[in-house]
């Protein structure tokens, strides 16, 4: 599945979340509160416990 | 099967093949997705790009050219002056990119910046049709593979990729080697296989691209653009014959599961 919703369990940065999920070298976008962004442009952004982050995998075809 | 709610589908023409009729694709989407707005925006650079940013974008696009299919590119190197000028002319619509292979993920990221912040939301499906040929790096065999599409924000679909990425019939490649050895005209070979693959300025292109546009829609709704059913337009064809069957030859457009999803319409937000 290309879009997966993750509930953040404790306060952390986007970079910490990405590392934790083992996605630092994967082509993904993130969605938080309706807004989509590239994780590496927002590594320092802080997430709060309870935030729902959608991980959107970029998929190539053909 | 529930999915992300959609608000609007936005179609862009970034120098796509001249046989592509985007208005016809828009009309098709309006019929299939009656509760979702569809808007044709034309050239994304003309629509969004400020004149003082053209050189910057030209430089960045020139820097994502793939030089060798078996060597993973390290981006950020300064391109040559001529390469930047070429891309500048391309952005301004004064020439058409051809014979250049770009990194698909990097190209998508450049296109992403053209989308206004308020439309960078899952409820908006941005689809860029381009004639740029792009590829993505595969770690499994350590090489770039040409692609027809990259689905994300935006989804990019290549009218050159649909010709070059899915493989032609095996016999075509065998005969091509013989033709090249004997220095025979390759156009004769193309004629012999006419209809068995999508070609440049192919009259079937618009019909084929409707299916790829639907893959982009399903990607945004479900996160999954593809279907395993070879007769469904969402089938991820790696061969031209598969592509032609899924998009033009199958007795049905979508498999029962995806047909039901389209009929359901729960995911449509508003028009």
Identify the quaternary structure here: heterodimer
- What is the class of chain A in the CATH system? Alpha Beta
Helix/strand-derived category of chain B reads: alpha/beta
Rg of chain B, alpha carbons: 19 Å
Order of strands side by side in the largest beta sheet of chain B? 2-1-4-8-7
Which chains have the largest interface?
A: A-B, 20 and 36 residues
What is the distance, rounded to the nearest whole angstrom, between the alpha carbons of the first and last residues of chain A?
Answer: 18 Å
Number of individual domains of chain B: 1
Q: Estimate the strand proportion of chain B.
A: 15-25%
Note the run of SSEs of chain B as H and E.
EHEHHHEHEEEEEHHHHHH
Order of helices and strands of chain A: EEHEEEEE
Largest sheet of chain B: 5 strands, mixed
Q: How large is the share of residues in beta strands of chain A?
A: 35-45%
Mean pLDDT of chain B: 92
Number of helices of chain A: 1
Q: How would a crystallographer describe the biggest sheet of chain A?
A: 4 strands, antiparallel
Q: Assign the CATH topology of chain B.
A: Collagenase (Catalytic Domain)
Query: What is the distance, rounded to the nearest whole angstrom, between the alpha carbons of the first and last residues of chain B?
Result: 22 Å
Unreliable sequence segments of chain A: none
Going across the biggest sheet of chain A, name each strand in turn.
Answer: 1-6-3-4
Break the fold down into its secondary structure elements and pairings.
The complex is a heterodimer of chains A (62) and B (271).
Chain A: E1 3-7, E2 12-13, H1 14-21, E3 28-32, E4 35-37, E5 46-47, E6 52-57, E7 59-61
Antiparallel strand pairs in A: 1-6, 2-5, 3-4, 3-6
Chain B: E1 8-14, H1 22-32, E2 37-42, H2 44-48, H3 54-62, H4 81-91, E3 101-103, H5 104-112, E4 124-130, E5 133-138, E6 143-147, E7 149-151, E8 155-158, H6 161-164, H7 170-181, H8 186-192, H9 205-222, H10 240-249, H11 256-264
Parallel strand pairs in B: 1-2, 1-4, 3-5, 4-8
Antiparallel strand pairs in B: 5-6, 7-8
Helix pairs in contact in B: 1-9, 3-4, 9-10
